[in-house]
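Supplementary notes for students who missed Thursday's class. We covered one full example, reproduced here. Read the sequence, then the structure, then the short commentary at the end.
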Amino acid sequence: MAKPGSNTITGRLTCHPDGYGFVIPDDPTAGGDVFIPPKKMRNATHGDQVAVRLIDGNAKRGGRRTRSSLEGEIVKVLSRAREVLVGKVFHYQDEPYLAPLDPRYHYTIRLVDETAEDLPDGRVVAAGILVQPGKHETPLGEVVEVLGDPGDPDIQYKIVCYTYGIPLEFPERALRQAESAPEIGPDDLDHRRDLRDEPTVTIDGEPASDFDDAVSIEQLPDGSFNLKVHIADVSHYVTQDSPLDTEAFVRGTSVYFPDRAIPMLPPRLSNGLCSLNPGVDRLAVTVEMEVDRKGNVRHADFYESVINSNERMTYTAVKQILIDKDRKLTRRYKDLLERFRWMLELCEILHNRRVQAGAIDLDLPEAEIEYSEGEVLDIVRSERNQAHRIIEEFMLLANQTVAEYLERREVPLVYRIHEEPDALKVEEFREIAARFGYTLETRRLGTYSAKSFQALIDKLSGQKESQFLSYLMLRSFKQARYSQINRGHFGLAVDTYTHFTSPIRRYPDLIVHRILKTLLAGRHESPEAQSLYERLDDIAEQSSERERKSVEAERDVMKWIMARFMSQRLGEEYEGFIIGMRHNGFFVELIDHFVEGFVPVETIWDDFYVFNERGHCFIGESNHRVFRIGDQVRVRVDKVNLDRHLIDFSPVLPPIQGPKGRRKSRLPRPR
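Structure (token representation):
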């Protein structure tokens, strides 16, 4: 935070590979992120907590707009973010060094241990930093683990897990506790409602093996619905302060890569005793809601239960039944058909209610990897159908209903919050949207409501600049996080929200289960409950951090898979669309594969191209050719950097016809 009467602030440094950085202030009222030029970085590195002195600067640097109008210089590193780095060994003048794989870390590390001397160049290792970089100090380190060779097919997973602190093995004590967990016995059922005879299904993706949630539904005589959302009773097995609980807190979340998962809980629980697998008795916590035709919850009940899921359905199968009217599947699931129709009907009611309330529905495409015998066959857009929406709407409703119930009873809680966006970032987005002819309506005093953003999303639907502006809009929002203090959820347009429906894979959900069950049992003022309440701040902070790390890890692996996939297609040509612009080039998303790459401006060889910031396009000085957002272009795969997960394209341009139909030679203009 800023010191009283000074122009110094503190915050976390985010570095860019090009040498500059931004400091995200600890004080959200500080006026936005602070730009740090390369020569003002001092000896700070990516992620460090730093003190910054504000200096005169403006929003135009190098002929382009940055994301901040504040500029500063780092005066002190308050704490270091990195104690361990992953990189490749290389030797210089017979001395071993580490070249970090993270391009945002701007130093090489001299390795001073004997182990490093014998390692060949290119070997991937994790090194502990013994001496941090300083004004007159070269950073020193020692090898703490040899991860393997760059050609190892699993090396990227090892790199990512080490970089983001994702444990690959469970402690022995946690494993012993999981293995000793008993199957369901008569004593476990005494106080539970027996719902085993009630038609119940899980609906998940094809690869899923840990089923947190199941649903049951009935339509009542007046047309309203009785919806039961059954959530795995993980807290029955993972008791407070046990070895499993300690490890789950450290991990915070399960991490999902395209071809594997790193669970928060050992597989005996995550895929076994806790998972709501079909045809077996499972313990659950049920949220039973009576929902009217307008989507209002007229009554809600919460209780521990035992269920037996009838079917493990997939999103694809449910979509084929409800939308495609697949005859074979309709006959196979004829006993559940009416319930699937009720689910779809209630889903549409709930969705319409959320939209009317102002919820933001930013449906950005995601990549899905298709495998064949362990090899990547293709990278495609993932399909999000009505079956996805059914489960999404039901889980949102259950989460909100639990949060409101606990808040009304004034019980301490871990909320899921999404604060209103920063005014400066929204203003920057609004200016760019205006260049494309779109307006963002203000609410009051220059602020914006969720409805304003959703209205713009509706206008963008089907437009060629839709994806570009949607991504910019998302970047203007704050990240959702966990907090013991309720600040509402801007994106969902609700005042109170929590995470309850995924306790197998998210630690906050497990905590909310404990809080709810403690209240239902009348033990919410017990010493054990008070001990839990005292830890909620730490739990919220740790869970938010682990969530961010898991998202970054999953993104890194996806980028690596894309880069590896395209490295086998060098020289090939593809059609694509321009989806983003920078001052030095533009991004193209391919049509045949859901992959994007960068076209550097210097590869557009038929003219000298200038970036028009206001028009967000490149214009040729002589031929006046224009490259805009949404244009279809043909590109060639030029090069791939597997270490940095970068894909470079170059445009395949049609020849310019000279006099009498002769083709003119086009040479790049000297720069």
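Commentary. The chain has five domains: 8-79, 84-152, 172-419+483-558, 423-477, 569-661. Residues 1-5, 58-67, 660-671 have pLDDT under 50 and may be disordered. If anything here is unclear, bring it to office hours.
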